[in-house]
Amino acid sequence: MAKSRISRLYSLYGMPYTKRMARVIAVYNQKGGVAKTTTCVNLSAYLALEGKKVLLIDFDPQANASSGLGHPTKLNEGSIYHGLFGLAEPDALTKPTIFYNYHLIPSSQHLAGALIELVNIPEREYKLKQFIDKIRDKYDYIFIDMPPSLSLLTINGLVAADEIVIPVQSHYFSMEGLSQLLEIIELVHKNISAQGLKVSGAVMTMFDENEPLSHKIAGDIAASFPHNVFKTRIPRSAALSEAPSYGRPVILHDPNSTGARAYEQLAKELIAQETPKQFQMPSQMIPAADPRQEQVVTPLPNESFDSAQDMADILIDIKPQVQSEQPPVVVAEEPVRDTAFYF
Ligand SMILES: Nc1ncnc2c1ncn2[C@@H]1O[C@H](COP(=O)(O)OP(=O)(O)OP(=O)(O)O)[C@@H](O)[C@H]1O
Ligand SMILES: [Mg+2]
Fold first, then answer.
1. For the chain, how many structural domains are there in total?
2. Pairing with 43, which of 91, 236, 286, 319 sits 20 to 30 Å away (CA)?
């Protein structure tokens, strides 16, 4: 039903002008070894499989995401360090992966030095944001694989992000780390980030179905965490820990493993959070007013729509004869799945 209404809109106005605007997601937990990198590498792969155009920025001097995607660090090669300081443009730093719609900007050991170099430069908290702003409209998702620390690098990552995904290891000390993390997010939210930082959700990682402690911790987090907790839990899976040594995401290593299926499910949960894409119709495409037709105006709501259907329902009631000052907002159809592999 929604589709036919949207098609009618297309026939009224012609094909819409679409523009990507990436969800920029920092995958962060200040605790080390909780599966930040594993989540970045594999979630990105499954989003690419779903037809999304994805960029993974390895923002950790350890460069595990880079090597996990088959790009071991080379000191003489461009990395996010060069992007951070305006020494290279994004295109020069972007590396392909085996998916044509999944790109990587690698890290390097230089990034460890950036901590000191950043201290005395103006707008030091906004360097990554300024870099990402240049390429936001080229991707559907930009992931930032964050380092396990609280530093100027971390602040750059959180300021650049719209959203944060928090991997939480099913481990006794996880809860303690979480309250500190929420304080950090609140601080960035209040003091630095203009548009705020949304918590997309916490995801339980290395979950052991047979271990009562895993269930207890998951239950505690579901009960006390003030934000979304993803329904998908990532199980402990040998395939997930092996895949990086082959320089590939798990989908190309063992796609039938429990770990692979869990990240596939998590990607779908993340996609389900998407709000309808909005774009402005170029003003010359708005049909001129026809005085013979009844002047009925359905006001556009100011707040965002709950679903694409809601938006389509309202739009179809807007008669094209009313020339508004602001071009109407039109909802785009689901993108065509256009994933392909390089072989
Ligand atoms: N679900 C899983 N099952 C088994 N091993 C896993 C799983 N998730 C991650 N691992 C392994 O746990 C280790 C830590 O994972 P990862 O490097 O993704 O964590 P991290 O949070 O990025 O670490 P750091 O804080 O050092 O950046 C790695 O060896 C990884 O292969
Ligand atoms: Mg990591």
1. 2
2. 91
